[in-house]
Amino acid sequence: MDKIEMTDVITRLRALVEQHYVFPEAAADISARLAAAADGYPIDPAALAAAVTADLQAVNGDRHLRLVHSPEPLPERADGDDAAEWASMRAWAERTANGVATVRRLPGDVGLLELNPLLFPAAIVGDAYAAAMTLLAPTRALVIDLRGCLGGDPNAVSLLASYLWDDEPVEFTGHYERRTDRVRQSWTHAHVPGRRYGRTKPVYALTSATTFSGGEALAYGLQALGRAVVVGERTRGGAHPREAFRVHDHLEATISVARSVSPVTGGNWEGTGVSPDVATSAADAFATAYRAALEQVAAHDDASGAEARQVLADALPEDATPLPV
Fold first, then answer.
1. Cα 17–Cα 31–Cα 85 angle in degrees, nearest 5
2. Three-class DSSP category at 152
3. What is the distance between the alpha carbons of residues 306 and 107, in angstroms, rounded to a whole number?
4. pLDDT tens digit string along 254-291?
5. Nearest by Cα to 99 from 113, 84, 111
6. 138 with 201: CB under 8 angstroms?
7. pTM value?
8. Which one, of 242, 212, 211, lies nearest residue 85 by Cα?
9. What pLDDT is stored for residue 319 in this prediction?
């Protein structure tokens, strides 16, 4: 990259921010900041990406605003053409079991669903979610591990939430879009493939300081509806859906084009993260939630209850602090 190419990148990036960023006033400030710093930016693409990302995020701390360096050349594509991104997502999903890292029945009739690295687009991984939830549906309590979930597709979030609700839809979240100047509502589904978990059995969602974006959306929405107890650490705080734009052979801009709006709280977790109901370290979150789930199952006078009581007696430390129910 030479100086002229670098200047072209900044010019293109400023135009994209001004046109698409969900907060127009902040977009003007960000564009002015980039213009003022342009002469001092490095021409090395990787170094440029780091420097520009710092300036993109300096105005309001939006972590979805980034200039991303790719060591490999990025394919040519028109704005709005997401075919290459979908192909990449599909390949990534296939390498990571569709983001369903663990599906397991734990001793005591507690289900475990670990989701990482992403909640991939529902059109890609819907069948995997149906299979996972069908296997977990008979369990008496559920732990959803989002500690390693780095983001995801809004449609995947609402699909997963649908399995934790009944067939009467509920508004789960929404997104204000600058392009349309309206809130696009996201509801749970009246029908899902496979078996539902339903809305009555206990659910615990584990979070860490790494949990971001789509992982946060699932935890926040379930918490707001009172459907899950969030256990672990405060999350990173990224609530703005974004789009990607190719601005150079090795550089891609990600720009927030919408903001999440909860129908329950009226707000979102941008900048603050999702605050856990039960704060503990990420390392201790699973044991804390598992014990709480076992205690709830143990209250049942049946085979599952007896199994949970035995696990509590045999395998968990007596001084472990139980969660409030």
1. 25
2. strand
3. 11
4. 999 999 999 999 999 999 999 999 999 999 999 999 99
5. 113
6. no
7. 0.89
8. 242
9. 45
CA dist., res. 22 & res. 38, Å (int): 23
Spatial contact of 31 and 20, defined as CB atoms under 8 Å apart:
no
Cα–Cα distance between 325 and 197 in angstroms, integer?
A: 19
What is the C-alpha to C-alpha distance for residues 306 and 310, in angstroms, rounded to an integer?
Answer: 6
The residue count of the chain comes to: 325
Please say whether the beta carbons of 226 and 252 come within 8 A.
no
Task: Compute the distance between CA of residue 224 and CA of residue 43 in angstroms, rounded to an integer.
Answer: 46
Q: Are 190 and 225 in contact (CB under 8 A)?
A: no
Alpha carbon 178 to its chain's center: 21
> Which phi and psi (to 5°) does residue 50 adopt?
-65, -45
The two structure tokens encoding residue 303: 């085979």
The C-alpha atoms of residue 310 and residue 308 are separated, in whole angstroms, by 5
- Cα–Cα distance, 255 to 178 (Å, whole number): 12
SS3 115: strand
- Secondary structure E strands in the chain: 66-69, 100-106, 110-115, 141-145, 171-177, 182-187, 203-207, 229-232, 242-248, 251-256, 258-261, 278-279
Antiparallel, parallel or unpaired: β 171-177 and 182-187:
antiparallel
Q: Please say whether the beta carbons of 151 and 119 come within 8 A.
A: yes
